[in-house]
Amino acid sequence: MSKTSLPAAGTSNTFVNYIATIISLIIMLYLLGVWGLLAIYTNQFLNYSKENIPFYIELKDDAGESQVFAFQKSLEASPFVREKTVEYISKEAALDLFENDAIMTKEDVLLFGENLLPNMIRFYLKEANFSDYAQIVKEIEVNTFVEQVFYTEAPAESLSGKVYRLETILLVLMLFFIFVVVTLMKNTLKLTFLANKELIRTMQVVGATLEKMAAPYIRQSLKNGFLSGIIAVAFLWLTRVLLENGLGTFEEYDLDFWTSILSVVIIVVGIVLSWICTRHSVQKYLKKPVEDWDV
What angle do CA 45, 50, 56 make, to 5 degrees? Predict the structure, then answer.
């Protein structure tokens, strides 16, 4: 009676552990995906932010028209400037910008009716050249007709610091779930081996090779890793859809490509992690006679 009840109990425990293992693996892979997706979005946002920071060249009042025009053309041809972003803004056009400004009106920038605003040239840098902006500014300010060059600070750097902290938290959670997944996998396989103890003993007696005995467990581990990866990827794409509905997206960047690469990585990680854990347990138990198992 006891011989028939033990396998039943073992089978029940194995099933519970199996479900817990799959769920934990899905959560771990999903966290990996969110971590990667967050890194992709942060990188794309920083690139987008850098390419959309306007630089203003304040011109001196005595700057000659032909001189400024020639400089504007050379700036448009510069390799570090985004195409079609160089724009000359006269002091009259700049004054019109204050037409509907809630903070400063036209009267605030006029002194006895005289427009105090300078003539300016506005341009945007390419993301790849943004790190060299200080050197670029110095080279522009060398021109005698340039008063100064200034730009509006963007919140990208402070945001990237906050995102970095969030990525660190997700990384810690992911490592925790990796530990949980590995532990559950090993316990599940241990219970599975115990439930099939008699069958394994018989196979060992008839001289079955390790590869022959391990094959069903290895195949199942590959299926588990693949299935968990697919489910995690599905949740990841759903998360991206929800994010884009709430925050929008960057149309000029190929997010589909990077998300697809990330999805492949998630599935591969799920399969490899499941295979490694199963292979380790197989080597630990099936390589030894049943009587020598340390359980």
Answer: 145
- Per 3-state DSSP, what percentage of the chain is helix, strand, and coil (rounded to 5)? 70, 10, 20
What is the amino acid identity at position 263?
S
The reported pLDDT for the residue numbered 111 is 52
pLDDT category at 1 given cuts 50, 70, 90 is: very low
Q: What three-state secondary structure class fits 123?
A: strand
Every domain of the chain and the residues it spans: 2-48+157-292, 53-153
Closest CA to 19 of 191, 219, 249, 240: 191
Q: Give yes or no for a contact between 48 and 40, defined as CB atoms under 8 angstroms apart.
A: no
The domain over range 53-153 is classified in CATH as 3.40.50.12780: no
Q: Where are the beta strands (DSSP E) in the chain?
A: 54-59, 87-89, 110-111, 114-115, 120-124, 146-151
Neighbours of 285 (CB within 10 A): 23
Cα angle 116, 120, 122 (rounded to 5 degrees) comes to 140
Q: Measured between alpha carbons, how far apart are the two ends of the chain, in Å?
A: 22
The per-residue b/e assignment along 27-37, b for 16 or more CB within 10 angstroms, e otherwise, is bbbbbbbbbbb
User: pTM of the prediction?
Assistant: 0.69
Contact 14, 188 (CB under 8 A): yes
The total number of residues shown for the chain amounts to: 295
Rounded percentage of the chain residues whose pLDDT exceeds 70:
80
- Nearest CA to 241 out of 231, 233, 253 is that of 233
DSSP symbols for 35-86? HHHHHHHHHHHHHHHHHT-EEEEEEPTT--HHHHHHHHHHHHT-TTBPTT--
Count Cβ atoms below 10 Å from residue 119 Cβ, excluding itself.
Answer: 21
Q: What is the pLDDT of residue 179?
A: 86
Does residue 294 sit in helix, strand or coil?
A: coil
